[in-house]
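Journal club prep — side note

Before the paper discussion, L.F. wants everyone to see what a predicted structure for a comparable chain looks like in token form. Sequence:
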Amino acid sequence: MAGMLEPVSRMVNQLSKLPGVGQKTAQRLAYHVLAMPEDQVRELAVALYNGKKQVHYCPVCGDYTDVDPCRICADKGRDTSVVCVVRDPRDVAALERMRDYNGLYHVLHGVISPMDGVGPDDIRIKELMARLQEGTVREVILATNPDIEGEATASYITRLVRPLGIKVTRIAHGVPVGGELEYTDEVTLSQAFQGRREV
């Protein structure tokens, strides 16, 4: 970058590779790090490195963990008859914040997307089917995003799971709490009408 010291330029370049961090934000972060005391910078670097080194995928559900199996899979208080299928570990974190779900998870690490060259064999569908063969699961909740890829993935999994006699449900989609109908798109409104329930 013109007019910038080479070490700072390298910092900006690396920081801008993070999702949601553009050049200006990366530059602000780089200058903030330069202004930090050296011991705090070292702590940050060590925390990032150790986090990457110590965290891995749970061999059961595929969520991030630092123990095997993860704390959710090992929790004896969870309902082992229900498995919620999600796209990635961030979705597990979002559902856990809700505190209403007490079952287990299965993280696909992606969705079916032929345009991007991602097929069923490229995500963790085989692992899901192996878990379901054990016979303890009674319901699979499909919680993929309500976009084209998420719907295609949910449909594909539904076709595989239904013959096993396991109940397959899909999370509802519709108007968000606090949303206004006037500003809601047609697809969301349509899904809200299809998912309506008696009150």
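L.F.'s comment for the group: Strands lie at 56-57, 64-65, 79-86, 103-107, 139-142, 167-170. Keep this in mind when we get to the figures.
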